[in-house]
Structure formats: C-alpha cells, structure tokens
C-alpha cells in the first residue's frame, strides 16, 4: 500500500485540508474508488475504510493481479465531516456538484479538479454515493444514462439492483456523470445507510466491489455469492407521496414485498395524534426506498417502489 | 409630486384619479386558518395572493406570496411586469427594490397602465433562516426549475411558481451575489437569449450587461426555464448578500420604472438611464482567486478602475502579523466584483476585473 496526497490546501485557522489516496498494485490504472464527499457520509467513509484494510491484506498476500493498480480515496471532504456540516464548511457548496472542477476556480471547484485529475485516468470509477433525502435504500448500483453507460458491466457487482438514472441538468456536474464523459466506466454504489453505519450492507458493498474487480481481472480471488441483479430505470419507479404533513410512521421497510392497496404508513397530527392519512401501495412490487424521518412534509415521496415486472433482465 | 429616495434622482409623476375597486379579492389557494390573516390585510386595503402553499408538520403553512397591482380598467394596456426576488434566501437587496416599487406605485396608482406583480420571497424558508438554499433540504432553489407538479414539495412549489409567473411580458429576477462579494448592478444573460433580452436590459439603468455562455447545469434555473418557454426574464445581480445597499436599490428601481414606461405599463415620466457596458467575450473577464487561505484586507471597492500591478488587497495572518500575499491587478480594467467577506480559503474569489485597453 502506498499513500499519496491528492491535494493539500493550507488554511488560516484550521489544519491543512488534505485528500489522501491509497494505492495498491502497480501498472495499468484500473479502478478508482471514492468514498465520502459530504459531511454526513459516514457509511461511505466506513465502507472505503474496510476496502483499504482488505486491499492491504490482499496485496500482502499477492492477491492483486499483475499489472493492475487500484486507487482508493476514502474521503474527499474531511473538513465537512469533522465540522459535522453536510456541504463545504465555508460556503455550503457541494463538491459533488462541481465536477469536472477547475484548478484555478473557487475552493470546491479546485477540490473537485484535484480529485478528478487523479480519478479520470482510471478505467473504472466506483463511488459510494448518498441520496439527497434521508432514508433507507435497497442496495443498488446506479449508473447514469449518458449514452456511454454499460449496464451489463454493472451486473458484475452482484448487487440486488442496477438502477439506470436519466440525468437531469444538475446531475451533469456530479463525479459519476463526468467520469462517463471522460471515458471512465462509472458506478455509484448505494448501500442502505448514509449517516449511520450499517454493518451488513457495508460488508455486502465490499464483497460487491471485490466481486466486480475479480470479474475484470484486477483481483485474483473469486467472491462467491451475490445476486442476479435486476435492472430498473428510474422513471419506472412508483412514488408514494404524502398529501399532508405530520408524524410519519412507516409500517413497511426497504426490501419488503408489497401488494397494491397494502398499507405502507400512517401520518398523524403532531398535536392531537389523530390519523390524518393512510398511505397505501399503488402497485404490487418491492419497496426500494423508504424515508426514515419522524416528521414528513406535504407532497413528499416517502416511498419508492419497484413495480412487479418493471425489472429488465439482460440475461 | 416627486418621490425621493435618498441617493438617486427623483421620479417625476403625474396625478390621475384612480379607483381601487378593480382589485382582485379572492385568493384561490387560501384555505383554513389563512383566512383570518387575509381578511385583516384586505380590510387594510392590501391584497395578497398566494402563488403556492403547503402544509408543514407543526401548525404552519409555507406560503409563497405575491402582491398584484392592477390599473383601473380604462387605463389597462394589458401589459404585465413581474418583480421576483428571494430565490436565494441570503440575498436581500431585492427586498428594498420590491418595497420601493410598491411604494412608488402606492403613491401614484393612477400612473399604472398595466399589471405589476411583486414576488418578494420565493424561498421564504431560506430567508427566514438566513440560508441561501432551502433549509431542511439543503437544496439550491435555483436548480430545481421548472419543477414538477406531481414532484416533491420543492419541485411542486417550483412548478406553481413557473405557472404563476409565466405569461408576464417581463420578469426581473433580482439576486444579490452572496454574503462574500459585492457586485456592481449588472444583468446576466445567457448567450442563448442574448438577442431577445439585451435591448430590454439596456433600459434597466445597470452598469454592466454580462452575456455568458450556456452550461447544462444552468438549464434548471428560474430564468432559463421561463426564457425557454417565451417569458422574458432578466437576471440582475447587485450589491451583496445579507445587506441592503440603498443607492443600488434606487438605481435599479429607476431602471424598473424606465423599462415599465417603455413597455407601456407606467405612465409616469422617468429620467435618463445609464448606458451599460456590454461584455460578450468570456476572455475579457479576469477572475482573481485567492492563492491560499488568510484574512483578506481589500484596498479597493467594487466599481473601481484599477491599473495593472496596482495593489488591490492583501492576504494576511492576524496570528503573526505577516502578509501571506499581496494581491495585485494582473490587468488594467474595471473591478466590478469585490470580496467583502474577510475569511478566505485557497480559491476564494477576491474580485473580477473587466479588462480594458
Ligand atoms: Zn442568487
């Protein structure tokens, strides 16, 4: 294992801002793995720390294929994690909205540029991502439909789902999108959690990455198990939205099979605890995303469901 | 009768008889507990309409309000002018402009020959909590347009905003930089809409019209969304976040009345307007980014002419008393953006110079 400094910025009243990378193996720049970019991405940081530990052991045992180099950047944003702020501490900008970055630009543009400069030369790019809404996900690999995407490759992780996301204008400045534009095959991995550590899905994610790396001839050991992933496109997901605000009590969790008409949650008045709304599933399917906050706003998608039959198997 | 406001030349207005009876009285989006508030305001002669309204978890509704000024029917030329601000919650210069516009119309409603809509707080949550974005969602409101009617709360609100504002003959979207930088009053125009918008922008009494290239990410802004469906929007950047600069507010208010006059919405006389500098070449704008972190002591002000090599500020260490970096102008030109917030990190913008000569 070799450590390299991706970027170091001196600050006036804080320790220098540093991004470190950990390199394993020598040769072709085969895969770059990026962890936390936002201050609440504890799970993402945790998963990459597990990867670093296991890759170090593997490298010592000769488990990395000849001529392949792996780069892991566990954290692009130590400042925000340490200050417990989701976005950049000084101006609240989001590093994952700054790609491909600009080395002479504003601070977060420079940070994005420094990371991207390292990351864009790799053949594969894997990022542990988080959703803008707090909630629990079914673990999945997400790729953007840029026209350059390769869903078949995403199946090699053996995650339960591969999600094809149609990018919207604001997605064009994310790491995933720019990786693809710069000819890196990019995958965003979502485990169930973000601001809590979920051991089970973290280990599942590590196995998924190792399984993928084995299939691409980067790691020697085969990782048994895994799923025959289903492919889903985001427009096919069914949303269940609240029509009022209040306490939110889900009665079903991410991964549950549901039937049309089945009760999914109650919304209760925050003063009288009276039932205001009962949310039911509009379709037969599987709960893909469940919001997990005690209060909900009106007009909020609290569930996303994969309707029965929406999965597109490639095999 | 003249309306005078501090630092800018007065507007000379005529006096006509005018009746208030033509005002709309019913707000279709009102429901439940809102009615009490509304009645009070209405009895005071004030008509507030709700563009959008959603329920919040504990005893509150989030409401996006607008105030509609209607001319008496015999004078109505049918034009509609909308003043929009507060999409970014930390930008308050537009508050003064909205107030000034309303005040001047209130003083001389008889001069109104079209509809004027004032939308002072598109992101009321953000304004309340001194946050640029939408609190609780950490979302930049100016990246979710045109929204979606069946989308999440903020997308739903965005879609209602677009629906309400669209159809205006002119919309001004007033921004105030951010908490860090002062901007001379300027209108920013996407090259895609340059031909259509520059002639209007020239009437707005601003110092600069900055025509900038399109970027995909900008396609989710309020202005882009409306311009692309044929409702003209001029984006103004002026002053600094979290503050009101009266002189700038008055300058832009003058511009608004001037443009409204040209568009047949205001019958009052208006004074001459500034001839703005029009910049269309991205290469003539020089960005001054801090080479490292420090406390920035500015030696210039926004709007200053600077010479190549002139010291425009210093990055210093209060801890040791040393100067980390003396910042000099790499080109002669016009410093139209200036850093005001002292704490600076590597990359922080300290200013922008429009190169000259
Ligand atoms: Zn703004």
What report would you give on this structure?
The complex is a heterodimer of chains A (315) and B (357). By secondary structure, chain A is α/β, with parallel strands linked by helices. In chain A, 21% of the residues lie in helices and 32% in strands. Chain A contains 6 helices and 18 strands. In chain A, the strands form 3 sheets. Chain A has a 9-stranded mixed beta sheet, with helices on both faces. In chain A, strands 6, 11, 13, 16 and 18 form a 5-stranded antiparallel beta sheet that branches. In chain A, a hairpin with a 6-residue loop joins strand 14 and strand 15 (275-280). Chain A is globular and about 60 Å long. The relative contact order of chain A is 0.14. The model of chain A has no long low-confidence stretch (mean pLDDT 95). With 357 residues, chain B is an alpha+beta fold. Chain B has 2 domains: 11-278, Aminopeptidase (3-Layer(aba) Sandwich), CATH 3.40.630; 283-355, RNA polymerase II/Efflux pump adaptor protein, barrel-sandwich hybrid domain (OB fold (Dihydrolipoamide Acetyltransferase, E2P), Beta Barrel), CATH 2.40.50.100. In chain B, the strands form 3 sheets. In chain B, strands 3, 4, 5, 6, 7, 8, 9, 10, 11, 12, 14, 17 and 19 form a 13-stranded mixed beta sheet that branches. In chain B, strands 16-15-13-18 form a 4-stranded antiparallel beta sheet, with no helix packed on it. In chain B, strands 1-2 form a two-stranded antiparallel ribbon. In chain B, helix 5 (194-201) links the parallel strand 8 and strand 9 (208-212). The longest helix of chain B is centred in the C-terminal third of the chain and has 17 residues, at 246-262. Chain B starts with a strand and ends with a strand. Mean pLDDT of chain B is 89; it is low at 1-45. Chains A and B meet through helix 3 and strand 17 of A and strand 3 and strand 18 of B. Bound molecules: zinc ion. Zinc ion binds next to loops of chain B.
